[in-house]
Amino acid sequence: MKSIILGILASSFFAMTFILNRAMDLSGGSWVWSAVLRFVFMVPFLLVIVGLRGDLKGLLSELSAKPLTWLTWSSVGFGLFYAPICFAAAYGPSWLVASMWQITIVAGSLLVPFFSDVIETPEGTKTVRQRIPVKGLFISLIILVGIAVMQIEQAKHLSTTEVVIGIVPVIFAAFAYPLGNRKMRAVCEGRLDTYQRVLGMTLASLPFWLILSVYGLASAGSPSFSQTVQALIVAVSSGVIATLLFFYATDITKGDVHKLAAVEATQSGEVIFALMGEIFLLRGKMPSIMSVAGMSLVIIGMVLHSFASQSKSIDINGGIVGD
């Protein structure tokens, strides 16, 4: 239950991403700077946190040991996740982008076969490929149905081009985030804690953001003061607080694919928090009855995930019984 509570708390801070990205877009800010500035501002905060904990030397040692691996998967997990999210903010309200983002719940489950566990057997150490959590995936489909209901309603007011441009980047990001996160967790093999891993991935993704910033300068010029301040808020709330909470929540599942699926399902709470922010902070329109019905399905799916993860029985050897 602790991991789920942390996941829900993280989702409230993650929602600031969708709300402020939408606010920056409405005020004329470029999506490029919304993305770049968040990760640039994250660096000093994380350096202070890790430095005060005395863990900086160990992180630098890991980075220097496998620099290309860090660069690759950090660019996937952070760069190819957040840049598309910011791009999509120009094509719909924050709650809609947040709802589309919940596809990552299913994406995380589908990525399971790409990872393996090392177990001890009477014959010695054996590598076993993880299995897709079928029950968790079925529950995730309820969330997807809710998202589909909301998208059908929204599609009535958008052109086909706008729908595609607003949806495809988010789907891409939904797979990139859990893939990069899990790959780096596997690479670290427990040698780094959550704070070190987030800082390491942020530092390793900087070349990606440097390249994107060059494009931003050429296409939109430098960011305004207002956008810079809003990006700083996103960096602290979503980039630092939410990311650390979420990564810590996934870490304490200890690789249990069922509990991991439940933690990733808590991200659906972002839809509700984003909706509240859209209405009260951005004075956005109230969603239609159909959209509310879709959001209700998303919440139901999240709750079912939580109950499913708690209902797994543990045998005397610590193994999980059941699907």
UniProtKB/TrEMBL annotation:
Key words, A-Z: Membrane, Transmembrane, Transmembrane helix
Segments spanning the bilayer are 31-50, 70-90, 96-115, 136-152, 158-177, 198-217, 229-249, 261-282, 288-308
Q: Does the keyword DNA damage apply?
A: no
Q: Which InterPro entries did the record assign?
A: EmrE
Q: Name one Pfam family in it.
A: EmrE
Protein name from the UniProt record: Multidrug resistance efflux transporter family protein
The protein's organism comes out as: Metallumcola ferriviriculae
Q: What is the lineage of its organism?
A: Bacteria, Bacillati, Bacillota, Clostridia, Neomoorellales
